[in-house]
Amino acid sequence: MTDAASAAMRLDEVQPGTIRALTQTELKSVLSSLKDIAKREPAIAEMMAGDSPLKDFVANAFTLSPYLRDAASADEGLLTLAVSEPVETSLGRLVEKARNCWRPGEDGAIPTEAEVMTTLRVAKRRLSFIAALADLGRIFTARDTTRWLSDMADAALSAAIDHLLLANHNSGKLTLKDPQAPSEGSGLIVLGMGKLGARELNYSSDIDAVVFFEPMAGIVPDPLDALEIFGRMMRRLIRIMQERTADGYVFRTDLRLRPDPGSTPLAIPVDAALLYYEGRGQNWERAAYIKARPVAGDIKAGAGFLRELTPFVFRKYLDYAAIADIHSIKRQIHAHKGHGAIAVKGHNVKLGRGGIREIEFFAQTQQLIAGGRMAPLRVRSTEEALAALTDAKWIDAETRDSLTEAYWFLREVEHRIQMVRDEQTHILPDTETELKRIAFMLGFADTKAFSEKLEDVLRLVERQYSALFEQETKLSGESGNLVFTGQKDDPDTLKTLERLGFERPEDMSRVIRTWHNGRYRATQSVEARERLTELTPDLLKAFGESKRADEALLRFDNFLSGLPAGIQLFSLLGNNPALLSLLVTIMSSAPRLAEIIAARPHVFDGMLDPALMTEIPTRDYLSQRMKGFLSPARHYEDILDRLRIFAAEQRFLIGVRLLTGAITGEVAGRAFTHLADLVIEAALNAVLVEMATTHGAYPGGRVAVIGMGKLGSFELTAGSDVDLILLYDYDDGAAESDGAKPLDAVRYFTRVTQRLIAALSAPTAEGVLYEVDMRLRPSGNKGPVATRISTFEKYQREEAWTWEHLALSRARLICGDATLIVDADRIIASVLSQKRDVAKVAADVREMRQLIDKEKPAESLWDFKLIPGGLVDLEFIAQYLTLVAPAKGLPPHEPGESTSDALKRMASEAMEPQAHDDCIEAMRLFTELSQIIRLCIDTDFDPKQAPAGLIDLVCRAGDCPNIATLEGEIKRLSKAVRKAFLAVVSGNDEAGFRVTLSGER
Fold this sequence. Notes:
10 strands, 41 helices, about 5% strand, five-stranded mixed β-sheet, mainly alpha
């Protein structure tokens, strides 16, 4: 249905048989009441004169809801209003009337507080009446009802606040910036919490709000008086909203969600609130603020306050321990309310098992866990949250749809319970007669059909909720006893350890007792030790399944000893068996990754993303996540720290995908490079902003960064440094930058380059981004760190050596000014398209390869870069062919190609088919092996010393059953590559350049 069609819906369009009368006796009584109303309301007399679905519907509705029946009788004209015009037209007018009730009349008279209270009560009562009929008549869905109730609450709160501000302005206590718009610029913030914040108010809902104020906003003559003035205003606000008068009440209003409500005033200074949340805020408060929304007062200031609070609510590190706190609230609710079983009669549809709160907790907990890294999860409404979790691959579409349908069904049940007598209750009746009332209001034929539907929904919700939260803990299980208390070994525990696969059970038992004795920082707190105790059986079983259980456990012990705290990690592992298995793989296979997570445990957070193994880390994928992660950064240093955290985590996650076989080495190289591109670009942008702040902009200044080497060819590994050249240009007529501390061009762009290097490579508390190598710039280390584009062009055309043009064949512009990038691309393309002396290039390449072999001989067969026929030979073939392509008529250079792509494109025309196939296969094998080895260890690979798990990974990467077979394949392919290199570069003239596989001449 379109918005226009929805807005035009009327009650007289209700379908026959939508609801049934409770009893015939009730129906007769209601018809009598309607005849009385018809005597004073002509529109109702007309309705009652004939037979129509509307007449039947209204009569049946009044039999089911005594509250609606009494409201129609007491408020003359109310029923006429409901049936005489489109529903949303009436409701919109009522909301508008409520919102503007504080405004002075045409005579300039300001409404009294009593007049404001009356107007708000009448508007709310009428809106509730019409919305209830629209809901019962299926003109509205529960979504529409909650939205209109929330809009009325917003309007009422805003009107009351404006009235109070204006009254205080007129009495001289405040000086408003604009009496026509009292709230604007007032610094008075009213946040709607819970269902009000999410625009999900139930039919007889109270409203939760918190109030803050900015003493220095300028409306309080003496800021020291602000606490008393705003505190008094809030007491009047509560009176306006909830005091019962002859006209009823507006909304019951609860301000107890503010910080420490037992000892704080009703309105709190902004700075005090921020200090509280940053220092003492609890997980339940974080959950509450997911739905927080500025609803009244200074809306702009409210939005600013919530932005300030974002790091508290959505932490940049995953906070999986929070899930236990959130679940404990739910357990306390069950214990207090006695909701241990699912039933229909007497069941609490909000707090009971399978109820509304479980759906909300299901969504909110996952929002808390991942919202710091995934900005799209920071939504308020439950339905939006479920949709966002699906988009983020945290839940599947089936779960989203079933929980969304369940949520709105339960909200409809809740509304019917409350519509009966306008009571704030969520408990279904415990008698058959009253339960029938609810069933009929929902359109069911009888209580049996309703009960079956409700039980199905409650069980579905409970299953989903239980799968997320409720996990058993066992200290002894199928494996046997695992007891590590006291000073002596438990004999049964030693047998269990041996049975699990540990070769030295006594030593392992002693190590584990160290954990439980709290000798490490990570296990000093009682709660951390409890979590670790719960985790230990699964941990030991997983380590036992690895080939070298003792070695893996000792590596985990080393990891544990360096942790600053343990509760977060233990909670995370305890709730995610797949992560536990992965941790064991890392400990048994990848010492380098183990050291990374020991130093920075937060890198493990990203493993919670359910889409990790299915989504390829493309540039768009990484860019979206980096944008969300950097968005809360407030200053230069914060940006650099966040970049380090993000890069470390994403490098780790790319590595995990590689480790588990989810991606190939080639894909990993491209992903590592995309990550570096994005990080360098973000660092450059931050540097340029910082430079402009201190030294101003340089007139006509343009900067671009070239990625060289493996960065340029999308072949970075987990431990690669980055080769960069920074180019710049500016207006020749400009003498210096235009800032407070101006610099000439050379110093300005040199400073930009130095700051970029520092931004990437300077160690901070969060580590280093990348080691930066600038030696490939014109003139190398002897030249300036920044190069003007004209100098770059002149150097490449007139002075560069062959080896520099070889390097240029892998150059790729990665970030900077778009026009300068175009200029640089043009220069590089032009230089590489020149026809060269093929013999001279070949001689230069041969000389360089001989020099490398002499100065840096391969350490072993596993030095894939330097072995004869290794990666250097393959890279030289590709680069040589790029330089001689114009002279030999080969396909022209394509920037950003990997070595493998360049070989596939050009080498087939320069060598025999078998040699070409061997080179492509060698490139694939050496890439796979290099990526895995560089990921797992920092040292040279030696099969005799490598962890058992790494041997398995290397054999898997080489698609060989054992290490001996893999060694044979490396020898075969490297010999073929060396032969191809000599044929291509030497023209089959191998004289003076014969190198054996051992490196001897």
